[in-house]
Sequence to fold (311 residues):
Amino acid sequence: MRDTTPHYEQQYLDLMRHIWRHGDERIDRTGVGTRSILGATMRFSLADDAVPLLTTKRVYWKVAAREMLWFLSGDTNIRELVRQGVHIWTDWPLDAYRRATGETIDRDAFEARIIEDEAFARQWGDLGPVYGAQWVNWPRYEAAGDGLYRRAAQGHNQIADLVAAIRATPGSRRLLFTGWNVAEVANMALPPCHMTYQFQVSNGKLNGLLFQRSCDLGLGFAFNIFGLSMITRMLAQQCDLEPGEVVWQGGDVHLYLNHAALVEEQMERIPSGAPRLRINRRPSDIFSYAIEDFEVINYAPQAHISAPVAV
Ligand SMILES: Nc1nc(=O)c2c([nH]1)NC[C@@H]1CN(c3ccc(C(=O)N[C@@H](CCC(=O)O)C(=O)O)cc3)CN21
Ligand SMILES: O=c1ccn([C@H]2C[C@H](O)[C@@H](COP(=O)(O)O)O2)c(=O)[nH]1
Fold:
């Protein structure tokens, strides 16, 4: 008998079609323009190593994996990403540099300088207190006497605390971490988009949920859903739980108007296949994973579709 269960990716293609047809058109912060809706949910199983990679275009999952490991390292400077050949965050520091200096340096030259010149990287490569800073070092203040306070040397490590909490109180409804530090949002190159992650233990399985306040459905989503799945798998492994499912919730979910070619092409394609994410080692703690620990098998996507990123 033919399997009539819809492919997991159908949810994504349906949402894309809905937004492209019925989304509210407006000029957004970037000036590119979007069609957008408020509020959407998708769910994907992680059972038997299933991973919700898009199959209707090739997704460079290792780029997303390196980005996730970079967040967990607490780093907020693009230097390490650029060293690893990851270019997805370069446009924001590059834009700031061009505006501040009036120089018309191109992206390759800017990246070369970030790698070669440590002082330059320190001055121009930092994104401010973005994801990594908040996840593992959320500022904490301690009393310094006479009613004064000073910033503590070590902030809150939300990720370490989360691992401990999943282990100690698996029934808890407080298993979460967030990048949305109200006091520091103004100093970030971009306020967090994938802002709040929540977890739940159910029948020995770990479920993960992401609230993403703003979603570039054509470009960012593919990375964000992989990241959610990856961190859920890592947490499950560290807490001796089986992977359950991931739930993705979007706030402002949009398609950029200059992604028309991508959207039209992708909506024509039929999803297929069941990729698996393997973790080939059990590191001693959540901060000790390396890119080599991750492997995706059974991934035979259709051709990559490139699309410009709105800065
Ligand atoms: N408009 C916008 N969309 C985003 O998805 C996004 C931002 N801005 N700003 C911050 C980060 C950076 N992220 C990005 C940026 C670029 C790509 C991108 O160009 N992806 C291409 C090529 C990837 C590559 O060459 O490695 C892709 O096809 O996935 C993806 C995510 C996600 N975020
Ligand atoms: O992980 C990410 C990071 C960013 N995005 C997208 C969502 C928006 O298109 C822009 C951010 O612009 P805001 O004006 O700050 O909302 O980047 C994403 O989809 N995923």
